[in-house]
Design goal:
mainly alpha
């Protein structure tokens, strides 16, 4: 496998929902540990870029697609579920976070837990009608934090805990 192919794998994995950067960084570290001459800092930048690339599309179109599909025969129940779940969770987050909503979004994306990440955070921001620019900054900051945490965990910095 060529070096370019490995970088492309890191890029495309970071774009996949749920897996995102949380999967791309460990893959990059795995390539490096197996003797590849990839640069970790470059893998990190590529993974952050790949993870952020779908964000504007999600922000501007995901809610519209869910609203469009909520009354369709085969997808309606699922789309309605997604909308209701997003609105309910968003209102709860909004009530809890108050004026710190963007900071809460940053933490939601930045702490690498299952079900959190740029895709979910951006969808929540869209459903809550949050400001695009502030949301992107919060999501990107969260992605950067998640990348640092995943890089540290993947490189074994926290191995003394486990």
């Amino acid at each position: 496998m060529t070096k370019l192919t490995k970088y492309l794998i890191v890029f495309f994995v970071s774009m996949v929902p749920i897996v995102e950067l949380r999967g791309a960084i460990p893959i990059a570290v795995g390539f490096i540990e197996k003797g590849s001459d990839l640069k970790l800092w470059l893998c990190y930048v590529i993974a952050v870029f790949g993870n952020m690339l779908p964000v504007p599309i999600i922000f501007f179109f995901a809610r519209k697609i869910l609203v469009w599909g909520k009354d369709k025969k085969f997808i309606g129940k699922f789309f309605t579920f997604c909308l209701e779940k997003g609105e309910k969770g968003g209102k709860k987050l909004e009530a809890t976070a108050g004026r710190g909503l963007y900071f809460a979004l940053f933490l939601f994306v930045g702490i690498p837990l299952p079900g959190t990440g740029a895709w979910t955070g951006t969808l929540a921001a869209s459903i809550l009608d949050m400001d695009f620019k502030k949301s992107v900054i919060a999501v990107m900051s969260g992605v950067v934090l998640a990348g640092i945490i995943m890089g540290a965990l993947s490189a074994g910095i926290f191995s003394f805990i486990f």
